[in-house]
Hints:
By secondary structure, the chain is an alpha/beta fold. It folds into two domains: 7-32 and 342-393 and 437-647, Collagenase (Catalytic Domain), CATH 3.40.390.10; 103-287, Neutral endopeptidase, domain 2, CATH 1.10.1380. It contains 24 helices and nine strands. The strands form three sheets. It has a four-stranded mixed β-sheet. It has a three-stranded mixed β-sheet with strand order 6-8-7, with helices on one face. It has a two-stranded antiparallel ribbon with strand order 1-9. A hairpin with a 4-residue loop joins strand 7 and strand 8 (454-458). It comes from Kribbella koreensis. Keywords: Hydrolase, Metal-binding, Metalloprotease, Protease, Zinc.
Amino acid sequence: xxxxxxxxxxxxxxxxxxxxxxxxxxxxxxxxxxxxxxxxxxxxxxxxxxxxxxxxxxxxxxxxxxxxxxxxxxxxxxxxxxxxxxxxxxxxxxxxxxxxxxxxxxxxxxxxxxxxxxxxxxxxxxxxxxxxxxxxxxxxxxxxxxxxxxxxxxxxxxxxxxxxxxxxxxxxxxxxxxxxxxxxxxxxxxxxxxxxxxxxxxxxxxxxxxxxxxxxxxxxxxxxxxxxxxxxxxxxxxxxxxxxxxxxxxxxxxxxxxxxxxxxxxxxxxxxxxxxxxxxxxxxxxxxxxxxxxxxxxxxxxxxxxxxxxxxxxxxxxxxxxxxxxxxxxxxxxxxxxxxxxxxxxxxxxxxxxxxxxxxxxxxxxxxxxxxxxxxxxxxxxxxxxxxxxxxxxxxxxxxxxxxxxxxxxxxxxxxxxxxxxxxxxxxxxxxxxxxxxxxxxxxxxxxxxxxxxxxxxxxxxxxxxxxxxxxxxxxxxxxxxxxxxxxxxxxxxxxxxxxxxxxxxxxxxxxxxxxxxxxxxxxxxxxxxxxxxxxxxxxxxxxxxxxxxxxxxxxxxxxxxxxxxxxxxxxxxxxxxxxxxxxxxxxxxxxxxxxxxxxxxxxxxxxxxxxxxxxxxxxxxxxxxxxxxxxxxxxxxxxxxxxxxxxxxxx
Length: 652
């Protein structure tokens, strides 16, 4: 058993009572430079780098060996090699997208444009909306199609209207012109202005990211007639047939933002057809740019990398190649990754930790003083039906239908999109596949899926600093225990709490309990609205956008601490290690997991679109609300981390 905390790397100039985040991470922040190919870097990203190096070794070894024709190993190797074959890619230039651009050029009317939208969407070019099969939020034993707003190429609708993004809008128009010129399209400068105008109109129909979080407002079920009524003049039959979607798939569907679809359909009728053709040509160029010759790759990075995120250097080619392989053959790679990097003992320990976290949640829910017995029992019922998934899927995806050619990168990506589209649509009418994972094992992340009421932890996150099978319990509970608690907490956040244990969007709360819950969450919103991150001076956190993640953090860490105390079996804390008590090591493990630095452009971008708070606040803003933190470090009213007991938010 190791301490898991390097006490020699803690700050000697900052007290944990004044700033836990900088006490834990100050020396790291002082000595660390953000790598040139990154916009943000920290403990999380260092673990991403580790996973990426492990995957690189697997993929390059696979690509270098003679593999049987048609095998998944051969497909992995051929796809990676097709991305690394820069000689062929440079020779081809824009030729791989010539057929798509010719298709757009041949369009004669709006119906022809709609048909072209469907055809290129099946090849990986996003259209005016997104769609896909998902579990029906109000009937969780069936799949249904969902549609979502789309059509824009900046990160969010706010980029098209807010004053602080004016310089980005100017840079975007210039980027559009350069990309269209590279593709050999006519009047690139004029087309760029017209494309920007069209996207600005589409963006005006978008819901903002706070409204878009509302799972009740975004559940709007319609039948085909209702869809036609929402979108006058849109040739759905033409779009469906060209997109490879059976008519039956759109017989019933959920439209997440109905007035956006209406606005987009109106724009199709009212904006000049040639302007729409310019926009679709841009979407084709943009979608393919990372796969084309160096001129396209560099210009794409110049805007989407340097301008939007501040990263000064493009990621190495092998890293980008792994991304393409992961997108097309993620679980095939995942099988090889798990075999080398995820021991059975890690899974067994995680099962144990999840069990302790669920028990801690149960005890806390039973003790809530603001919730009625009726709602409390329903919350306990939901908790009792959580399904944990750890490491990797029990059933792997089948890639036998995917054709990969070592000299056809763009074709490989197109065929992958078609295979995954068919896989997605094939769910309709079938029983729910409860073995499905939404992340690959080599992903450094975790998630909660409300419609399956499941918490999922891929193998790659189950490594230090988040999980160390040899580390002190206090450290594991403060790191991976809090991650487990966070994901469970999403089942009880402002949106996840609207789903019952079976994954249905039903109201299982009394009005009084929901009001009491919202009173507490409103205090949390106010706390975070006041925060200004170090990496983006002059900009504030959006407490409503980040509410779900903030509830997950607060509940997750609070419950993880309860689980840690339960693990002591009623006994006293173990002796201090390196002068740190178990409780102090618990909170330091949490703080160390959020070590992070971001470039200013990236920090600002994340404030606009990311539902997670900046890392420094995922540490400090959370712990200030927890009584046990104040006790562990003997926080006094004169200390910087002090928060008066009456101002501390406790939800779960």
